[in-house]
């Protein structure tokens, strides 16, 4: 199956929808970022330049979407953090928006509704796990915040060792919980 865009370009449908996700602080500095397509922003230097440009274009805007450097970017801000999800220019914005909402709501639940940089930095490991639970190499895995948090939360006494993720087990071993 091949789809045609309004410009007449042909492209194959793919599951690799998300090109990247990032969280920036109110100065435009990276707090957390993950890029999934090596053809788009392959080096950290290019990623940082893109993030700086993205922040400069969006930190004062009232919209929720922008096309920048051939990427469709949806975003949301709260207090001192900006959340971004990027996809290709022909990607469906509603799908990207659902990923953004899943990311924001998951972080909000993990941080107990206090979505601020200082609190996020204290729970960075759980937020990183949430990133991984939402998307794997650009393929959307889940968009339900409660199930994402259920798998990403670092619970020590509730989860038996055999059912923990590797990160949870290492965390518990390092903190002598076993």
TrEMBL record:
Keywords: Cytoplasm, Cytoplasmic vesicle, ER-Golgi transport, Golgi apparatus, Membrane, Protein transport, Transport. Residues 18-156 form the AP complex mu/sigma subunit domain. It is found in: Cytoplasm; Golgi apparatus membrane; Cytoplasmic vesicle, COPI-coated vesicle membrane. It is a peripheral membrane protein. SUPFAM superfamilies: SNARE-like (SSF64356). Belongs to the adaptor complexes small subunit family. Oligomeric complex that consists of at least the alpha, beta, beta', gamma, delta, epsilon and zeta subunits. The coatomer is a cytosolic protein complex that binds to dilysine motifs and reversibly associates with Golgi non-clathrin-coated vesicles, which further mediate biosynthetic protein transport from the ER, via the Golgi up to the trans Golgi network. Coatomer complex is required for budding from Golgi membranes, and is essential for the retrograde Golgi-to-ER transport of dilysine-tagged proteins. The zeta subunit may be involved in regulating the coat assembly and, hence, the rate of biosynthetic protein transport due to its association-dissociation properties with the coatomer complex. This is Coatomer subunit zeta. The gene is LOC112055067.
């Amino acid at each position: 199956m091949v789809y045609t865009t309004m410009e007449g370009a042909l492209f194959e449908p793919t599951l690799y929808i998300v090109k990247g996700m990032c969280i920036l602080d109110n100065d435009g500095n990276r707090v957390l970022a993950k890029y999934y397509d090596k053809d788009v922003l392959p080096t950290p230097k290019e990623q940082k330049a893109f993030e700086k440009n993205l922040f400069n274009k969006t930190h004062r805007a009232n919209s929720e979407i922008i096309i920048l450097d051939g990427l469709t970017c949806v975003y949301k801000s709260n207090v001192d953090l900006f959340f971004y999800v990027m996809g290709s220019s022909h990607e469906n914005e509603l799908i990207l928006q659902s990923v953004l909402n899943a990311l924001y709501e998951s972080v909000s639940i993990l941080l107990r509704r206090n979505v601020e940089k200082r609190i996020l930095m204290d729970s960075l490991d759980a937020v990183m796990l949430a990133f991984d639970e939402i998307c794997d190499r650009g393929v959307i895995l889940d968009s339900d915040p409660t199930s994402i948090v259920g798998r990403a939360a670092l619970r020590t006494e509730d989860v038996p060792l055999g059912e923990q993720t590797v990160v949870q087990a290492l965390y518990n071993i390092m903190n002598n919980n076993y």
